[in-house]
């Protein structure tokens, strides 16, 4: 009886080792296939999708500098935060604070539920937050600026999820010999997004 139990345990252990070995082989084969792949339209599409995400992230974060200046022309009765000097601070800090929460939350969820699924969820949060800002208005209980602060925090949560997930997705699908160049191209879109916020200032008066 003891011998049968011992032989059964040995067989089970051998099967587990073989399964682990097979899984490692599959991973090595997949990584080798990615590294040996030639530059193709697929890599261009990955860079475009990821680059557009970084472009919109930077634009959404830095465009508030222009909007905050425009709010300076509002009468104090329309914006209760202008008198206390908190308007600019709250508008500009709401998104970075949301980004901090988004990076922690989506980084943890992506490891457990999959990066592809989380990538779609954080994108929807960014879209909802952006539309919320576009449709924001003053009510009897909260001002226009207060509404924008709430929506910018929500958008920041989505932006925080987009930063790490986009970088990881590009790195995973890029061959080692091209990874640095593709990552540089994607992150360069942040600069273009920041530059895009200056577009209204370039209009002729």
Q: What are the defining features of this structure?
A:
205 residues, mainly alpha, Growth Hormone, Chain: A, 2 domains, 7 helices, 0% strand, disordered N terminus
What structural category characterises the helix and strand content? mainly alpha
User: What overall form do the CA principal axes indicate?
Assistant: elongated
Helix percent reads: over 70%
Estimated share of beta-strand residues: under 5%
Could you give the order of the helices and strands? HHHHHHH
CATH topology of the largest domain: Growth Hormone, Chain: A
CATH homologous superfamily of the largest domain, by name? Answer: MFS general substrate transporter like domains
Total beta-strand segments: 0
- Could you tell me the mean pLDDT? 76
Q: What is the CA–CA distance across the termini?
A: 94 Å
Tell me the name of the CATH class of the largest domain. Answer: Mainly Alpha
CATH architecture of the largest domain: Up-down Bundle
Notes on the structure:
- This is Major facilitator superfamily (MFS) profile domain-containing protein.
- Its main location: membrane.
- The protein has 205 residues and is mostly helical.
- The protein has 2 domains: 29 residues; 157 residues, MFS general substrate transporter like domains (Growth Hormone, Chain: A, Up-down Bundle), CATH 1.20.1250.20.
- It has 7 helices and no strands.
- The longest helix is centred in the first third of the chain and has 35 residues.
- The radius of gyration is 24 Å and the shape is elongated.
């Amino acid at each position: 009886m003891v011998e049968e139990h011992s032989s059964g345990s040995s067989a089970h252990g051998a099967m587990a080792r073989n399964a682990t070995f097979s899984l490692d082989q599959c991973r090595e084969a997949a990584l080798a296939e990615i590294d040996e792949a030639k530059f193709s339209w697929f890599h261009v599409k990955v860079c475009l999708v990821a680059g557009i995400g970084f472009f919109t992230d930077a634009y959404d974060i830095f465009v508030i500098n222009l909007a905050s200046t425009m709010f300076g022309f509002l009468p104090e009765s329309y914006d209760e935060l202008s008198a206390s000097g908190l308007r600019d601070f709250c508008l500009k800090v709401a998104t970075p604070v949301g980004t901090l929460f988004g990076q922690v939350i989506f980084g943890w969820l992506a490891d457990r539920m999959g990066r592809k699924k989380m990538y779609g969820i954080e994108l929807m949060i960014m879209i909802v937050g952006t539309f919320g800002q576009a449709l924001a208005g003053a009510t009897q209980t909260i001002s226009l600026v207060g509404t924008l602060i709430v929506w910018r925090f929500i958008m920041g949560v989505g932006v925080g999820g987009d930063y790490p997930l986009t970088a990881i997705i590009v790195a995973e699908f890029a061959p080692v010999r091209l990874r640095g160049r593709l990552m540089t191209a994607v992150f360069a879109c942040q600069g273009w997004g920041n530059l895009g916020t200056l577009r209204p200032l370039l209009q002729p008066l």
